[in-house]
Structures are given as structure tokens and as C-alpha cells.
Design a protein that fits this description.
Strand order of the largest sheet: 1-10-13-12-11-14
Radius of gyration: 47 Å
Number of strands: 14
Structural class: alpha+beta
Largest sheet: 6 strands, antiparallel, barrel
Shape: rod-shaped
Helix content: 25-40%
Length: about 350
């Protein structure tokens, strides 16, 4: 009896279960409600776009001009700085040593110029005048000796060689007297103008080298190019700061008294866009946080779209027109770099161009 009725009953239950499974799987599943209600456009006809919040000065990536080890970081994240305030300092002990050498070279060149300008020295003139007196005395003595020789009428009293020697002694003494006179005249004239010009040029070169090193030292202190707020700080004392453009900036600085929203408008909607049209921005994750944004400018060059993550290497196969809007930070509590949903009032799709 059990076998006779149990087996058909189990078969019937299996058929019922299979039928139920087929019916349930054939039904269209009800989609779950969204975790966050999306923002709704406040206009009947609009352009929907993605935007990213940025500083009104754009986000300024700060880099080191002179590479080296960072010895001081003078700011913190979120700090407000004025234009010219110190941000961080690179070790410049090697440059300071080089500056000392260049300054010493400039001091030596300056001393050479001063020495040339001080010519003639009184002591040198006195010595040259004394040598001139001595040369003149020697010349007079040689002439006297020649006069004595010329006064002897008897040629046998003095040899011809002696007469020639005395004549040569006069010529030699005259030449020495002329050279001494020329040397004295040269000293009285002071420094030669070309020599002074060369010395002055060497002085200017030495000063320029010292000024160049001084400029390098000053450039090792990185200062704020604008007044703003430190949005990101990625450098610490003891780390090496390379010069040039970096993938990850050492410091990101921006003016945040007024914020901008950089909006990517798809090229298919670009013809509908009207500069100055009303626009609203909604914070992603909370559509209740919104603000009216004011048109600032449009960049009239359609570019390949970049994913709004801050990484310039991420792209998709479409092109966008970038419109920039501004708003008061008090109107919407957002951070720089945060994404928002933007709705711009536009002409209807079927409207005339």
C-alpha cells in the first residue's frame, strides 16, 4: 500500500515544484529602488552634464625649481596663504658654499679695478723720477768722457777703439735716459684705458656669477604664486623634491573664495548650449544639496572627454565642450575635486538652431 500510493504522490509533488519554478523564473524581476534618488532637472528642456569642482584660479600644481632634499615645509593642508608666502625650502648648503667662492672672486676683481683706478702711486712716481735722474747723470758722464776724447788732438794719445767705446757709451746712456723718461710718462698717465676696461669686465662677470648663485638659492625657497588655500600637500621634510612637472604634484594650491564647476557638455548637445543660460549643480549622493551656478566662460575648443577623476590619462570615445561656471562656496558645501551633476537650460531638441 505504501509503495503503491507514495511513489505517485512524490511524482505529483515534483511536477508541482517544477511548474512553480518555471512560473517564478518566467516573471520579470522588479528592479530594486536606487540607493540614492538621482537629481531631477529644474527645467523642461535642458542639457545634463557632469561637472567637477575646481578652484577659481584652477588647481595650481606646485613644483620645486631647484631639486634637492626638503629641509622645511612651512604650510599644512587647508592652510590659507598669501602671494609670496613660503611653502617649502630645499637644502642649499652646496649653493651657499659656491656663493662664498663667487663673492670672494668678485671681491678680488673689485680690488684689481680699484688698484688700476688708483694709479699712479706717488711712491712709484718717486722711484721712476729717481731712475730718470740717474739715467740723465749717466748720460752726462758719458758725454763728458766723449768730450774729453774729442779734445785730444793727437790721435796717438787714445786708441780708436777707446774713442768708439766712449761714443757707444753716449748712445747707450741716451737710450736708457729716453726709456726711463718714457716709463715715467707712462706711470704719470695712470692705468691704460683698455686694461681698466678688461678689469671692469672681469668684475662684472664675477658679480654676475655670484648673482646667479644667489638667484638659485632664492629659487630653492618655493613660494606661493597666488593667494589661496593649500588643497593637497604631498611633501615632507627629509624627502627629495625633484624639479619639473610631476605626476603627483608636491603641493596643489588654489583660490577658493569663489569656486568653479568645469562642465563637460557632450558634442551632441553642444549646438543646444547657450552661454549665459541658467544652470544648477547638484551634489552627487544628495540631490537636496544644490546651488544655482553662474556662467563664467566657455573654452571654445572641443576636446576628447576625460574621466572626471582628476587623472588626465583616462579617456572615452567622445568629445566634449567645456563650460565653466562659478558659485559662492557658501551656497553649496562641496570640496574641490568633487563631482556634481549639472543641468543647463537649453532649447528643445526639435527647436531651430
Amino acid at each position: 500500500m505504501i509503495v503503491k500510493y507514495l511513489i505517485p504522490l512524490l511524482a505529483l509533488l515534483g511536477v508541482i515544484a517544477a511548474t512553480r519554478t518555471v512560473i517564478e523564473t518566467a516573471q520579470t524581476p522588479t528592479p530594486p529602488p536606487p540607493a540614492v534618488e538621482p537629481a531631477r532637472a529644474p527645467f523642461d528642456s535642458y542639457i545634463a552634464a557632469a561637472g567637477i569642482v575646481e578652484a577659481s584660479s584652477e588647481n595650481v600644481a606646485i613644483a620645486a625649481i631647484v631639486p634637492g632634499v626638503v629641509v622645511e615645509v612651512a604650510v599644512s593642508v587647508g592652510a590659507r596663504v598669501a602671494k609670496g608666502d613660503k611653502l617649502f625650502q630645499v637644502d642649499v648648503r652646496d649653493l651657499e658654499a659656491q656663493l662664498a667662492v663667487e663673492r670672494a672672486a668678485a671681491a678680488a676683481a673689485e680690488a684689481r679695478v680699484a688698484r688700476l683706478r688708483a694709479l699712479p702711486r706717488l711712491e712709484d712716481l718717486r722711484g721712476a723720477e729717481a731712475r730718470l735722474v740717474e739715467a740723465r747723470a749717466a748720460l752726462q758722464e758719458a758725454r763728458d768722457q766723449q768730450a774729453l776724447a774729442d779734445a785730444i788732438s793727437d790721435p796717438r794719445a787714445m786708441s780708436r777703439e777707446e774713442r768708439n767705446r766712449r761714443k757707444s757709451a753716449v748712445d747707450t746712456a741716451a737710450a736708457r735716459e729716453a726709456a726711463t723718461q718714457a716709463a715715467l710718462d707712462l706711470q704719470r698717465e695712470g692705468a691704460w684705458a683698455p686694461d681698466l676696461a678688461v678689469a671692469q669686465a672681469e668684475l662684472e662677470q664675477a658679480r654676475a656669477r655670484a648673482a646667479s648663485v644667489q638667484t638659485q638659492i632664492e629659487r630653492a625657497t618655493v613660494r606661493a604664486p597666488i593667494a589661496g588655500r593649500v588643497l593637497k600637500l604631498d611633501v615632507r621634510a627629509g624627502e627629495y623634491a625633484p624639479a619639473g612637472v610631476l605626476t603627483q604634484p608636491l603641493i596643489v594650491l588654489g583660490a577658493v573664495d569663489v569656486l568653479h564647476v568645469r562642465t563637460d557638455i557632450d558634442e551632441n548637445d553642444a549646438w543646444r548650449f547657450e552661454p549665459g543660460a541658467r544652470a544648477f549643480a547638484f551634489v552627487r549622493g544628495n540631490r537636496e544639496i544644490k546651488a544655482a551656478i553662474e556662467f563664467d566662460h566657455v573654452e571654445p575648443y572641443v576636446i576628447p572627454k576625460r574621466s572626471l577623476t582628476g587623472d588626465s590619462t583616462e579617456r572615452v570615445d567622445t568629445r566634449v565642450l567645456q563650460a565653466v561656471y562659478r558659485f559662492d562656496p557658501k551656497a553649496m558645501d562641496v570640496y574641490v575635486g568633487q563631482q556634481v551633476d549639472v543641468f543647463v537650460e537649453a532649447r528643445p531638441i526639435g527647436g531651430a538652431q
